[in-house]
User: Which sequence fits this backbone?
């Protein structure tokens, strides 16, 4: 009788604890990062009247006869299931998706506390702290290397409110683009300007160009519509300056050794724009020795008969060459037919061809010196010819490159002009073959550090990761560099890995710190310290501190908080269960009491 009385008492005690735990769960239904607890009951020792016996002979075995002595609270278990995520308007609010805890310290990292509550803010010194004043632990950017090393010990995350990012001089320029190798181009420029220096016979091979005697090869030139001439050996035009009485053939050759601008063999043979200019002038001067043939700044061949001493009129006739061995090149003929017509002596007008174009492409980017001053570097590419194998077969293209910088700076020691030349070659599949130069040396001459070396990253040899040359419209996929001006810290953001990214007034973002996370073998073994904090115990296992989203640790979501994982409907239901259990145990006590009263009344 007394056993049932005491069993009822243990039941009341156990259900009272369960009520306390469930009440605490409900009280923390809106506590950020709270993890609910669950009470587990277990029976107490049982009083054994008879032990179990084994079967013997024809008799079967018997089970033990035991009377239970009540119940007890066996465990109060923290359930670390994921709480729902609530977005907020504060970028230093952090929520953990998955396993793990934030690492906090109130004594400079000598001891740690752990929390799922990520309601953080920066204090007056720039420490990232929780609402208790504990400082969030992690790794801070090394001011010397500019890197964050998560293999070192964690420390207080502190970011100075007045942080300034110093200027970073550019160390490379990376360009990814396609230089159109096709027969129809959109990006084009007129051929280079050409002129006879003194305008007298005998100076035909002396030219004045703006590109240090760089001239264009007709093999890679286009008409004014951007259509390739594709001149073959021997193709060209017939030219007369006396109305057709004396007509000479002007034929293209891709062999420099065969060039003849004097017509000594009876045929004028040209390869470049200057060859054709000199040849036309030489023939014209057989009619009028003051005639000038130039290529003007619009890329047009221009015949001038304006000299005050000129005495003879010109009657220019341009026609196509077409015979048994030569196919007419219609585009080339049409480009020069507009030269045809009369050009009187001392004429103030001139005869001009169509615009002759070269395939070009240009791109520019701003770089920065050691003071953070911005300067523009311009790249100009111009199709120059073809790569050929030992048999003379075309196996790729060749492009000239010009790199220029603004005054008063100098490039590779050149001040006037502020430009250098280079060359790029491509393979027959359009991949990059080689390029020079691979770097430039720039001095801004404004007080910044001189001889700034800037690597040119145009791609890998025999690959398509940089410059290419396909039959496709020229397109810059990207042009980048790594320099920037100095800037002041104006804001921060935090990514999924816990990296604290500083946003600076110069438009740059810089990783300033990284929030550490801890993981335990047994989360339920942690000891609650209040204020949403936990501490390590002998049964939780040692804290495994590392980066978020690595080693089983969850990832971090900024501008968000993890809510309590208390399920209110479950908790309220559990209240009813606990209440009924408590009531039932109280009935055990009252019933036992009534039975004792009945027993006492037997004596009366």
Assistant:
């Amino acid at each position: 009788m007394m056993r049932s009385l005491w069993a009822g008492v243990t039941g009341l005690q156990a259900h009272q604890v369960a009520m306390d735990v469930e009440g605490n769960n409900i009280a923390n239904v809106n506590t950020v990062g709270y993890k609910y607890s669950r009470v587990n009951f277990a029976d107490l020792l049982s009083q054994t009247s008879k032990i179990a016996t084994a079967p013997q002979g024809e008799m079967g075995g018997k089970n033990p006869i035991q009377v239970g002595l009540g119940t007890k609270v066996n465990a109060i278990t923290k359930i670390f299931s994921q709480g729902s995520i609530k977005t907020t308007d504060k970028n230093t609010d952090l929520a953990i998706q998955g396993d793990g805890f934030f690492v906090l310290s109130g004594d400079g990292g000598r001891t740690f506390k752990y929390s799922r509550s990520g309601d953080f803010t920066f204090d007056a010194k720039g420490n990232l702290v929780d609402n208790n004043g504990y400082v969030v632990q992690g790794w801070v950017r090394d001011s010397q290397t500019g890197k964050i090393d998560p293999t070192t010990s964690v420390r207080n995350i502190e970011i100075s409110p007045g942080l300034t990012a110093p200027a970073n001089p550019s160390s490379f320029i990376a360009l990814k683009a396609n230089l159109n190798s096709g027969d129809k181009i959109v990006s084009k420029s007129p051929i280079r300007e050409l002129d006879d220096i003194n305008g007298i016979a005998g100076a035909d091979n002396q030219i004045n160009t703006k590109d240090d005697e760089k001239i264009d090869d007709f093999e890679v030139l286009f008409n004014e519509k951007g259509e390739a001439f594709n001149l073959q050996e021997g193709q060209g035009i017939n030219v007369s300056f006396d109305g057709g009485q004396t007509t000479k053939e002007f034929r293209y050759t891709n062999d420099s050794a065969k060039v003849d601008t004097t017509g000594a063999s009876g045929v004028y043979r040209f390869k470049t724009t200057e060859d054709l200019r000199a040849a036309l002038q030489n023939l014209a001067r057989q009619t009028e020795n003051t005639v000038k043939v130039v290529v003007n700044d619009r890329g047009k061949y221009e015949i001038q008969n304006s000299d005050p001493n000129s005495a003879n009129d010109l009657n220019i006739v341009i026609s196509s060459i077409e015979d048994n061995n030569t196919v007419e090149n219609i585009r080339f003929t049409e480009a020069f037919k507009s030269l045809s017509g009369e050009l009187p002596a001392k004429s103030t007008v001139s005869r001009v061809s169509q615009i002759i174009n070269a395939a070009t492409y240009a791109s520019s980017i701003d770089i920065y010196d050691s003071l953070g001053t911005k300067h523009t570097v311009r790249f100009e590419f111009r199709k120059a010819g073809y790569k050929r194998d030992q048999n003379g077969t075309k196996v790729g293209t060749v492009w000239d490159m010009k790199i220029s910088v603004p005054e008063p700076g100098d490039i590779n020691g050149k001040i006037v002009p502020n430009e250098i030349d280079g060359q790029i070659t491509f393979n027959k599949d359009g991949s990059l073959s080689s390029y020079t130069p691979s770097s430039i040396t720039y001095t801004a001459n404004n007080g910044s550090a001189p001889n700034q070396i800037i690597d040119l990253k145009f791609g890998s040899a025999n690959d398509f990761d940089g410059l290419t040359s396909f039959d496709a419209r020229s397109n810059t996929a990207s042009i980048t560099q790594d320099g920037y001006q100095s800037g002041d810290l104006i804001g921060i953001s935090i990514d999924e890995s816990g990296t604290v990214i500083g946003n600076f007034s110069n438009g740059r973002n810089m990783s300033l710190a990284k929030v550490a996370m801890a993981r335990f073998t047994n989360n339920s073994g942690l000891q609650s310290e209040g204020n949403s904090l936990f501490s390590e115990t002998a049964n939780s296992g040692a804290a495994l501190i590392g980066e978020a989203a690595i080693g089983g640790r969850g990832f971090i979501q900024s501008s968000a908080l993890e809510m309590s994982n208390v399920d209110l409907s479950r908790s309220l239901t559990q209240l009813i269960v606990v209440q009924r259990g408590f009531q039932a145990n109280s009935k055990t006590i009252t019933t036992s009491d009534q039975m004792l009263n009945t027993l006492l009344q037997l004596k009366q």
